[in-house]
Amino acid sequence: SGTLKTVVAGYVSNGGRLIIRICLTPILIKSFII
């Protein structure tokens, strides 16, 4: 579960919208399919 740290680190360093979008897209796809 280092993914959350990666998201937070990316958000803090880069503004991280792209990273968050990449991380959230599979979740949205899964919830949409299920």
Task: Describe, in plain words, how this protein is organized in 3D.
The chain is mainly alpha-helical. The chain has one domain. It has two helices and no strands. Helix 1 crosses helix 2 (17-33). The chain is elongated, with a radius of gyration of 11 Å.
Task: Tag the structure with descriptive keywords.
single chain; 34 residues; mainly alpha; 2 helices; elongated
Largest sheet: none
* Helical content band: over 70%
What is the string of helix and strand elements? HH
Residue runs with pLDDT of under 50 for 5 or more positions: none
What is the structure about, briefly put?
The protein has about 35 residues and is mostly helical. The chain is about 85% helix and about 0% strand. The chain contains 2 helices and no strands.
